[in-house]
Amino acid sequence: MSVGLGIYLALAHLWIPGAPTALWVTLGVLVIVSSLWAGTTASSTLAEFVKMVLGVMVFLSALFGAHVEERTAMLTSWMVGAALVILAVIASYRNRSGRSATNPHEYQYA
């Protein structure tokens, strides 16, 4: 789902007037890369943290970016940023509670 949000963010400037093209394309590509990174690692705590930071950056871009006057662009930044943070928190929680128990490298044999 995070990859989809990254693709949406990277392409949203095409249909949202006043959207910051360079900022959203850059953040969208970074979200896609970090989401793929998180999906391909066994225990992706660092990747999920990077995704959280990117989500916060997307959220705050509405406040500090040049698109504050455009309500649709601002709401898009808030919704995509909040969704990225929520998805990263859920995935990070699942990494700690579920997937790490099945990781054979974390077992300590005595």
TrEMBL record:
Spans traversing the lipid bilayer: 12-37, 49-68, 74-93
Protein name: Uncharacterized protein
Record's keyword terms, sorted: Membrane, Transmembrane, Transmembrane helix
Top-rank taxon: Bacteria
